[in-house]
Design a protein that fits this description.
The chain is built from 8 helices and 2 strands; from the N terminus they run ααααααββαα. The chain has 136 residues and is mostly helical. The protein has 3 domains: 8-50, no CATH class; 59-105, no CATH class; 106-136, no CATH class. The protein starts with 7 loop residues before the first helix and ends with a helix.
Length: 136
């Protein structure tokens, strides 16, 4: 209540104890909400952290997208795609110093069909015939 500008409620008998405040919880939340609406979520977090109130912001997709630290740590990765262009993708959540993960774009539909058919033992002429017949 001190942070919200309602310091008088700290000593008010109707608010001074958890038991006294219980019926007034909606009013307390309203006071806090009015205070938080005057600040950004990051300003609120900074002020509350200064007085040891554990808190954290609820990030919007825009907040996440614009957070440079997520790119620096590899949690978000810029990826080039031949049809979509450049876009942001979630990086690998697992970080192993001896096994770095390269984040790649998803393949286009049918992009590796010929390669896979070759691995399965089909020859070039057989694969060409499958294409001609519309099978692939």
């Amino acid at each position: 209540m001190k942070l919200c500008g309602r310091e008088e409620l700290i000593t008010d008998p109707g608010y001074a104890t958890p038991q006294a405040r219980l019926p007034k919880i909606p009013e307390c939340f309203s006071i806090i909400e009015k205070w938080t609406m005057t600040k950004t979520k990051f300003d609120v977090m900074a002020v509350l952290n200064e007085v040891d109130v554990p808190c954290g912001p609820i990030l919007s997709m825009k907040d996440i997208y614009e957070d440079k630290s997520l790119y620096e740590r590899g949690f978000l990765v810029d990826v080039d795609h031949p049809t979509r262009g450049r876009y942001v993708q979630v990086g690998s959540p697992i970080k192993l110093s001896d096994s770095p993960v390269e984040v790649k774009r998803s393949p286009l539909l049918g992009e590796h069909t010929d390669e896979i058919l070759g691995w399965l033992g089909y020859g070039t002429e057989e694969i060409a015939a499958m294409h001609k017949e519309g099978a692939v």
